[in-house]
Design goal:
UDP N-Acetylglucosamine Acyltransferase, domain 1
Length: 172
């Protein structure tokens, strides 16, 4: 059975696999029909994962304070590369080339609905900087600096975010 820190809220219909080590800080929550299959998920104070999101890949995901992971977002922390003989889960691991990585999302970020954030061979560990906004339906496979607003497939930084919240996530 997975260890669940009950400081946050986990909706009844969320599915968290037994191998996922979960840490929820005060005021964080995991919404309806969210699927989590990771080595470790950390949600810091006030962060939320919207309905129908999927956090998979067997790696690690850490979400900063007061960050929103929107509805239907996919955070993929592990993936097969085309260098393996097979790219199918039923194949022996020694014939696949699996990358397990880490996704770190900063404080006060917003990841829009149905966006995909995915590690790759080029970026096995990627981060979304504090105060950044990823638009809906975007595909992100590289790190994003702090204070950026962007969108698209592939993701493109469009402008700097002017309204800043303290990096420690504190609120007035």
């Amino acid at each position: 059975m997975a260890k669940h820190d009950v400081k946050g809220l986990i909706y009844e219909t969320a599915k968290i696999t037994p191998q996922t080590e979960l840490e929820l800080e005060e005021g964080s929550w995991i919404g309806d029909f969210v699927f989590v299959n990771l080595q470790r998920l950390t949600l810091h104070r006030g962060s939320q994962i919207g309905a129908f999101a999927s956090l998979t890949g067997g790696g690690r995901v850490e979400v900063g304070q007061y960050t929103t992971i929107g509805y239907g977002v996919r955070l993929i922390s592990g993936t097969d590369t085309p260098e393996g003989r097979y790219m199918v889960d039923s194949a022996p691991l020694n014939q696949r080339n699996v990358i397990r990585g880490r996704i770190d999302i900063g404080n006060n970020c917003f990841i829009g609905a149905n966006a995909v954030v995915c590690v790759s061979k080029r970026s096995p560990n990627l981060s979304i900087g504090d105060n950044s906004v990823i638009g809906a339906l975007s595909y992100v496979d590289n790190s994003v600096p702090k204070d950026i607003i962007g969108w698209g497939n592939p993701f493109k930084a469009v402008k700097k975010r002017e309204q800043k919240v303290p990096a420690d996530g504190s609120r007035p």
